[in-house]
């Protein structure tokens, strides 16, 4: 057993204190924000019809839960996001592996990828509706279109940064491109793939909401648009808050996967 | 005795948009079974290029390279190659790192596994076989890299400055270590280095290359008159200094026009 010196204990204590202080202030910030919002609404500093209030959001939430529509709206958005995320993983891995394997192909496609990546994908949404119809498929494609190009570029760049000497090692052991990919490029990019995917799941959510804005009968995006049209801003604000929680939950889910992978190695 | 390796009049140029670089010009030499040959030359003279050619990763513009009378091109596995750094893969255990070559060659057979285990045991890595590379010292890592190469039982071993990434003390020890292992396994090897004392301490014969385009300037057999020599004990041999100075002079023969003065060997007594 290793003895910890008093100095070390003191250091550890100060680190713990710092950590709990940060957590406390973080929590208080939220509480103050909600309290101030509620207060401002009830004292009439802001118009609660437009700005809602934490209490109104809460009651709207309960009411909509009872009507049993809210959970299915959340479920639809979540499902669409996960499906488009799944396609982003498969497609971006596939395409970036192809680009890595064929320098000529990547040379040819480079400007197109750059253009497609910088294009605001929300501009595509109206087109997608016309082409694919107002259905779930369109929304999934919208989610995919927001994430895929950046994902391909990031993965491909990462694949190219693999130590050339490691690739040479595989060549000296008699391996071809295939072995270089399986034995070196993919294993050394696990961390990169996970961090790219952590960003992507948020982008898929963005794309899905854009899609729901214009072509859906269900989902949080639909609730937001519908709420704003009929001036039920409580609905809108509640949906936005749920989106915040959803985005956070998805992010933490992938962080947990990332940590599990790091531990597993 | 028939030579194991025959390098016959090879030349190679590198091409880029800005022009052509003549790297190697009409190089010929032989290596005999069991021999340890060192190649020294000024930095950037194309030593590593020569190794890439010998193991078949590159094809010469002219000339041919024969290993046991057949061309080395497209058959890299008969030649083992140790790179400048150990290049162990961090996400694999030492055991799985050592198996890398066998996996790639689809040769993970019980006999090969027994051989690998024998090597790990003989060279003190058995205890570390489940460790990851970062848990090992620089010397141990080089041993693991050597065993990874030996696992494929290559007919010829190429060492491309395999100790240059290590600090001086470790370097002497690891060179001694690797030298002994190669002698014990009676392997034929070619070492490329810019360190003259390392070359003299390890090699049976030294080839001195000229500046680019590299040609063979001198072929110097080393006889330290030291039975059972090891790389470390060689450094204390009386004739060590003689060979060191000989090679040093060869290397600096064409260099006088730069310094303008007579070359001074770091080992020449004041």
In the CATH hierarchy, what is the architecture of the largest domain in chain A at level 2?
A: Orthogonal Bundle
Number of separate helices of chain B: 10
Largest beta sheet: strand ordering of chain B: 6-7-8-3-9-10
Distance between the termini of chain A: 26 Å
- Rounded mean pLDDT of chain B is 86
From the N-terminal CA to the C-terminal CA of chain B, the straight-line distance is 44 Å
Classify the oligomer: heterodimer
Radius of gyration of chain A, in angstroms, nearest whole number? 24 Å
List the secondary-structure elements of chain A in sequence, H or E: HHHHHHHHHHHH
Strand content of chain A: under 5%
CATH topology of the largest domain in chain A: MetI-like fold
Biggest sheet details of chain B:
6 strands, mixed
Top CATH class of the largest domain in chain A: Mainly Alpha
Strand pairing plus helix content of chain B: what structural class?
alpha/beta
Number of strands of chain A: 0
Residue windows where pLDDT falls under 50 for at least 5 positions of chain A: none
Count of distinct structural domains of chain A: 2
Shape designation of chain B = globular
Question: Would you write up a description of this structure?
Answer:
- The complex is a heterodimer of chains A (265) and B (270).
- By secondary structure, chain A is mainly alpha-helical.
- Chain A has 2 domains: 6-46; 54-264, MetI-like (MetI-like fold), CATH 1.10.3720.10.
- Helix content of chain A is 85%, strand content 0%.
- Chain A contains 12 helices and no strands.
- Chain A has helices at 6-42, 48-51, 54-66, 70-101, 103-118, 125-132, 136-160, 164-172, 177-188, 190-215, 220-229, 233-264.
- In chain A, helix 7 (136-160) runs antiparallel to helix 10 (190-215).
- The longest helix of chain A is centred in the first third of the chain and has 37 residues, at 6-42.
- The model of chain A has no long low-confidence stretch (mean pLDDT 91).
- Chain B is of the alpha/beta class.
- Helix content of chain B is 33%, strand content 23%.
- Chain B is built from 10 helices and 10 strands.
- In chain B, the strands form 2 sheets. A 6-stranded mixed beta sheet of chain B has the order 6-7-8-3-9-10, with helices on both faces. Chain B has a 4-stranded antiparallel beta sheet with strand order 2-1-4-5, covered by helices on one side.
- In chain B, helix 6 (168-184) links the parallel strand 7 and strand 8 (189-193).
- In chain B, helix 5 packs parallel to helix 6 and helix 7 crosses helix 9.
- The model of chain B is unreliable at 257-263 (pLDDT under 50).
């Amino acid at each position: 057993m290793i003895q910890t010196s008093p100095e070390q204990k003191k250091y550890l204590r100060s680190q713990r204190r710092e950590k709990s202080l940060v957590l406390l202030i973080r929590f208080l910030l939220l509480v103050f924000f909600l309290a101030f919002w509620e207060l401002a609404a009830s004292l009439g500093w802001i118009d609660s019809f437009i700005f809602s209030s934490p209490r109104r959001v809460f009651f709207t939430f309960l009411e909509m839960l009872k009507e049993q529509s809210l959970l299915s709206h959340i479920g639809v958005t979540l499902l669409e996001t996960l499906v488009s995320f799944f396609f982003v993983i498969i497609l971006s891995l596939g395409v970036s592996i192809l680009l890595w394997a064929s320098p000529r192909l990547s040379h040819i496609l480079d400007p197109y990828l750059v253009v497609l990546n910088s294009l605001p994908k929300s501009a595509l949404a109206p087109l997608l509706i016309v082409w694919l119809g107002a259905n779930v498929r369109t929304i999934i494609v919208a989610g995919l279109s927001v994430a895929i190009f950046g994902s391909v570029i990031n993965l491909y760049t990462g694949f190219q940064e693999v130590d050339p000497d490691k690739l040479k090692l595989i060549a000296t052991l008699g391996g071809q491109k295939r072995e270089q990919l399986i034995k070196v490029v993919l294993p050394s990019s696990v961390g990169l793939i996970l961090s790219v995917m952590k960003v992507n799941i948020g982008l898929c959510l963005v794309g899905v909401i854009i899609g729901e804005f214009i072509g859906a009968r269900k989902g949080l995006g639909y609730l937001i648009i519908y709420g704003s049209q009929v001036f039920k801003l409580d609905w809108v604000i509640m949906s936005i808050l749920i989106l915040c929680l959803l985005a956070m939950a998805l992010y933490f889910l992938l962080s947990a996967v990332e940590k599990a992978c790091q531990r597993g190695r | 005795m028939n030579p194991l390796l025959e390098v016959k009049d090879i030349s190679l140029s590198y091409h880029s948009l800005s022009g052509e670089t003549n790297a190697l010009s009409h190089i010929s030499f032989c290596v005999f079974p069991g021999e340890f040959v060192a190649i020294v030359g000024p930095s950037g003279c194309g030593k590593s290029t020569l190794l890439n050619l010998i193991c078949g990763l590159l094809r010469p513009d002219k000339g041919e390279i024969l290993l046991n009378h057949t061309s080395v091109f497209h058959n890299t596995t008969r030649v083992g190659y140790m790179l400048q750094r150990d290049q162990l893969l961090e996400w694999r255990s030492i055991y799985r790192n050592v198996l890398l070559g066998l996996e790639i060659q689809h040769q993970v057979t019980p006999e090969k596994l027994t051989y690998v285990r024998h090597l790990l045991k003989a060279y003190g890595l058995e205890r570390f076989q489940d460790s990851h590379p970062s848990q090992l010292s620089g010397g141990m890592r080089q041993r693991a890299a050597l065993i990874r190469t030996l696992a494929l039982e290559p007919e010829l071993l190429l060492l491309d400055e395999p100790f240059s990434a290590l600090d001086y003390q470790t370097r002497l020890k690891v060179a001694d270590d690797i030298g002994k292992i190669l002698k014990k396994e009676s392997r034929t090897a070619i070492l490329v280095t810019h360190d003259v004392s390392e070359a003299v301490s390890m090699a049976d014969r030294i080839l001195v290359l000229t500046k680019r385009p590299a040609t063979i300037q001198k072929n110097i057999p080393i006889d330290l008159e030291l039975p059972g020599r090891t790389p470390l004990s060689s450094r204390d041999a009386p004739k060590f200094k003689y060979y060191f100075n000989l090679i040093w002079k060869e290397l600096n023969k064409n260099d006088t026009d730069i310094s303008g003065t007579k070359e001074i060997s770091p080992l020449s007594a004041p």
